[in-house]
Design a protein that fits this description.
Number of strands: 8
Radius of gyration: 23 Å
CATH architecture: Beta Barrel
Helix content: 25-40%
Number of domains: 1
Distance between the termini: 58 Å
CATH topology: Lipocalin
Number of helices: 2
CATH superfamily: YycH protein, domain 3-like
Structural class: alpha+beta
């Protein structure tokens, strides 16, 4: 048996196999991107049909993030705590300043901004102080959010979850990004 010819045939077969796998992988990435862009267009049409003005782009990038366990200090001065360029934001009172964090072990897929936007706009009917007509959505961004609006006690540590932040003409609203 001619081993050099067998090696050449094997190498060619492996190269062809790798090219097929790579084309399937990049085709799937392209399909996912097109699906995200289509969902963003559909969400923008829905928002417009409800009389809400969308004055920003809808993020389409898919990402996986953990929860954060955030520590607070009453002695610290204001700090800009971030994880991978996503800020930690707090709703409510009773906190010191967030000073450090540790990540949770489980990493979850963050739901799309498009579905969070549809949930936000469709939920406006149940929120009596925010009329859907005349509402302008100025920014959609991903943040780590700590919701302390229903609690008043001071704590030393709490959990921050990924959330979609909607900055509107009526204020700031958050939608849990893990709820998809």
């Amino acid at each position: 048996m001619d081993w050099s010819k067998a090696k050449s045939i094997l190498i060619i077969a492996l190269v062809i196999t790798n090219l097929l796998i790579a084309s399937m992988y990049f085709g799937q990435l392209r399909d996912d991107r097109l699906q995200s862009e289509s969902a963003a267009r559909s969400a923008a049409e829905y928002v417009s049909s409800r009389g809400v003005t969308l004055d920003c782009a809808i993020p389409t990038k898919e990402i996986k993030l953990p929860v954060l366990f955030v520590s607070f200090s009453d002695d610290a001065k204001s700090t800009d705590l971030r994880y991978k360029n996503y800020p930690v934001e707090i709703s409510g009172e009773g906190y010191g300043v967030p000073v450090s964090y540790s990540t949770g072990e489980a990493v979850g897929r963050v739901g799309s901004a498009s579905s969070a936007l549809v949930s936000f706009v469709s939920g406006l009917d149940s929120v009596s102080f925010v009329p859907p007509e005349g509402l302008i959505i100025r920014d959609i961004s991903l943040v780590f959010w700590i919701n302390r609006s229903e609690f008043s006690s001071s704590v030393e540590e709490d959990t921050a979850i990924p959330a979609w932040k909607f900055t509107t003409s009526y204020g700031v609203f958050y939608i849990n990004a893990f709820s998809d």
